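Teaching note: in complex prediction, the entire set of molecules is handled at once rather than each chain in isolation. The prompt given to students was simply: 'Predict the structure of this complex.' The entities are:
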Amino acid sequence: MVYSADNSKLLVNDNEILASSAQISLGTSLSPKYLMTQRHTQDQVPNNGIGGKLSFNYHITGKDYFKEFITGQGEIPFSGSQQLSGNFGGLYFSSGFLTSYSVNFSPNSPTSASATVDFFDYARGVFSPVNQPAPSDTQILNMAHATIEGEFTTGAVDNFIAGTYNYSSEVMPVYLMNETSPSDISFGAKTVNINFEVDNPTGYLPISGDAAKISVNLKNSSSTLLENFTCSGVINSRNLASSAGDYVKQTINITQNNLSATEIYVGSVIDAAGNSGSVGVGTTGSEQGLPS
Amino acid sequence: MATVFYDKAAVEVTHNGVSEQLLATDCSLSFSNAQSPLYAIGSKGTLGQFPAGARQGDLSFSFLTTLTGTYFGVNGNIINSLASGVKMAASNSSEVSGVEIKFAGVSGSGYLNSYGVGVQSNSVSSSSCGFTFFGSGTQLPITGRLDNFAGQTIQTGKLATGVAHGRYTNLDNFATSLTAGDSAANVFGADYSISFNHNPVYKVGQEFPMTCLYTNAQETLGVTEDVFQSGLAFDSAANNLTLTLSGLGGNYGMEIGLSGAKQVSTAMSAGMDDIVRTQKNLTAVY
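The expected output is the structure of the full assembly:
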């Protein structure tokens, strides 16, 4: 039986995703088992657990659900879910982790994003086609309404032409002996980088990088701020390119490695009399000023 | 509602404060946005139509090839002068600005993307051109509403000598001359055209481009004559040629220069009740 894209709904943590494309892939880690004196073998044995990936592209309609995982996943304290469940046309997994996420900023274009969720199990369930109409009154944010702010230690940028925001995270399963499913997940380093085509060709790049910050504010047609993507780090690469019939393109790349949303957290203080009093929590990174 | 008859729908082009009302025989203007449907998997139908590009306009018109003016040091009509200027800008890879075009009460800043002139035996020469309106910064590509715009009163007496005509235009310098056989060709007409490629640069957070660059241009001259050049060269020599259009009595020559033109094709065809006509095409690029 062959189904159309209309029949395969995508749910992540039970939220319906208006994905323009999606794919789920599963793989084993099999290796051939050779015996001494043998050059051929029929046997293949697993040397690691099953791994799966759910990748999808979608358009940003407002505050993006996946963005909180950038600063929250693997961090303490984090009130939200650490895990992502996925259901693609009835094939589902219950525990996955955001490993990459990207948002594309192109002039006059709908803002599009892509995400990859890794999970360490096979997909359960059976494919169950759906037949439902597309939602009406969908708002899709367009980059024509966005505003870009940049802060640079050296030099100035007058125009931000196009760019992408990228996030990647190392997520490693931890297996116990005699178990084929991971008993725990180890979160590794997380990186955000933003690369932008700008209009100030220069070759200045010190060995220690150059501190910089770019903030992209996504707004609707009424200029209401709905989402923000900020990368505050160092410029670690520049690129200058041109081709016949085109203009000279200067691209900068800023990388940020500190992604903990909570910058300051003091649970309580004890005064001279020994009384404990709350002083509240600290600020929350790039989430400030956004509607809930 | 405005009902405007064609005699009140003049076409006027202004550049650097200098205007000319062209003797347009037709004109069409279109304005479009770039709505694109978006779809999501798992649902039937579309999410709606959403903008995927900036609005832009296009205007094209045909006009009698007037010769009497001099614009920016170039004899002829203002379109010919613009084409010459843009061609120079294209060869220098320069940033360019649009020109103000007004048509029936609607106006905008247009970038010349094509221009053509035709001249045939015993016929009044006609030209055509096309502009694209990109807008700029916060400036819309096109503004205004359909309304009477009569422009200047046309001086018909001046027109008698101010329009290029095939009777008075000498194209002998384009005649094919074979080394063997009889004499040089008779030239029956010529069609010249040039197209410009422009590159508007858009940025995020702004609909209209922040600048526009002309990148390159290509021009073609098709000459209709009666000699077939079967000895078309694999790599013909480049020549600097000048097409001179003239009006009544040979006055008011308007020149179009082709720099480094090469012959790229030759053809011949025959129809009932006519001689066998040949055509050679010359191209030049900038």
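Point out the following to students. Residues 78-91 of chain B form the longest helix (14 residues). Chain B touches chain A at residues 34, 38-48, 50-54, 197, 199, 201-207, 210, 213, 215-216 (CB under 8 Å).
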